[in-house]
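hi!! sorry for the late reply, been swamped w classes. u asked for the two structures so here they r. pasted raw, havent cleaned anything up. first the sequence of the first protein and right below it the tokens
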Amino acid sequence: MSISVASSNAKQSTALFELEEAIDRTLLNVKECKTNRETAIKEIEKQECEVRKMIFETRKKVNLHLNKLEKKLLNELRSSSRTWKSKHMEIIQWLESTEEMIAKLSEQTLHMKQLSSDIQVFLGTRQVHQVITSKMESIKREIGDAKDYEMKLCINSMIKQLPNELETLGEIKVTDCNAKLDFRDPKIGQAQTRIISDTKLQVIKTFQTCRRSGPCGISSCVILPNGHLLTSQYTWDICLVEHSDTGEYIRDVPIPVFKKPYDIAVIDRNRIAVTYGEPEFLEIMNLKTCKIERRVELKDYCWGVCHENGRLYVRSGNSTMQVINLSGGKRKTFQIESNDVRDITTSRDRLYYTDNEKVYCCRLNGDKLWQFPLEGRSIEDLCSIAVDIDNNVYVLCDESNNLTYIHHNGRDSRLLLTEYDGLLEPHSLYYDREKNTMRICNRHGLVWLYNVV
């Protein structure tokens, strides 16, 4: 076979497609590993802040305790000082009184000596002598009982030992474990890619999320980082609804603006992005506080939204995809193949979107990769789209009541579910890539949970 024959249609060959897949996977592996290590650095910085805070808190507690001990000891010192000073003051006051009395006796004796007769002096001397003798005995007794006090401090032995025994306030301990870095070999990845004819869905369970009769108007569903299911109801209930992974109702998440929520994208553990259809903006909401952190004006209807690597991809405008950098960079736009797109999703370096006729796959800058026709669809079909870890695509159509599986090459497909499998009025689809499970919600709030095998 000549090289010209062998190389015919090389640009559309499987070998070239697989080469592109291998290059893309390798680049993504490198980016994911880099992101993982950057996240590890941020985690170390977070841990450093937490340990620093613990050190400060420990020092604060020690200082507070020492302050209490110091205050208690100073109060005891003041009390002891007052007590023993009062003892001395009592003696001083008694001596001052005695001194005053003796001074008067001295004056009386001098007066008697100068003015009295010998008989009077004789008798007076005897009397004063008795008084002074008695007072001298009293002074001797008082002075003999007097005490001197010496206050000293006996430091607690533990405090004394503290400077010598306590060499550190604590110890920084570091444990290590193998990093959860998964560098998947492109060939291994291809070998493990699900074979389209073998792919099956196993029902794990079904549960009801709607708490009223009639359609709930569920337009979107996502899995939160805690494993809970969050649905948007495109109705005037004006709320998102959270359920556990087993179907138990958790709470309503109120929408601060009086608008019907259309689509949801999970940004991180606490934040989501919400679109409202005809209102020309999307909002970033904090799920913990239920408050809007940021509103992004788009100047056109805003339907499907998804998040990938710090960017929001939003279907807004005439055949236009808008790219919003959450870190505040310049907003970008690129043209897409259809103006009737309602649902979009991303997978690493690719963007997928669908109207009621085709499924489209392009790079995150808009460069077209492939498109796949959806045959036999109603013009009224509204389709939801999801992608697994191998870039295989799942398309759910509500009027046709079916789920189509499209191989990542964009050429092969098969029906996975139809109305004969009980699929009625399905409207929203979510693929959990970590657990390899799928959730389908219909208009009436019924949720099917499938295991993809």
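now the second protein. again sequence first, tokens right under
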Amino acid sequence: LVLLLPFLADKELPPPVFLSYSWTTRFRLFAWRMEGAKKQVFTIQVEDGKPGKDGRPAVGPVFRNILAKDGFPPLDPDMRTSWDVFRTAAGKYPDNRMLGWRPFKDGVPGPYLWKSYKEVYEEVLQIGSALQQLGVQPGSRVGIYGSNCPQWVVAMQACNGYSIICVPLYDTLGAGAVDYIIDHAEIDVVFIQDKKIKEILSPNCTSATRLKALVAFTSANNEQIKDAEQIGMKVYSWNDFLKM
């Protein structure tokens, strides 16, 4: 999954190389690419480092973005939330690429496919509207269970746009963690990666009985839909949910 930031829209960067690194390493690689592309200075030192003294550790120099060398610029009064940032970017750069992903076929990744800011923004509004149709109210909790993908980002932004609390579900500590989070956060709807549906429908996930709906990142099979109906849960494919 690739997320392009709007302020890079006019930068002439070399072709990107996407590898599986930590976020810190990715940022360093990005900074290296920027340096190679423009040879510009993006940070400035505003304070000197200080040696250790009286048992206190040494402190390195302080750097700031070059735009804040004389102090931090005032915040945009129209951007107070993450939704404001996304909405503003979609309005200013509607045709810029925002989300990119590589579909796999027979285990081989294909070329990147992209959605523009406008396309993502419109999809976000549709998903948010569908959540309202389900009766999800502002302040309610909605879970997202799965790996990073465009649907993950769209679901998260829909929550941001409609004042819904987005609760990531992680099973890295075992399947019991997902069961606990659903119950503890009082989640009623979960956006879910297809291969994770079986975990929610497992008898070990006792909190599944409180869920009103699952929204698959693509779709669920007929058996899963029937199993969900038996415990009073509706399962939607992504496309069907968009059309609500």
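hope this helps!! also noticed smth abt the second:
The first helix runs from residue 23 to 38.
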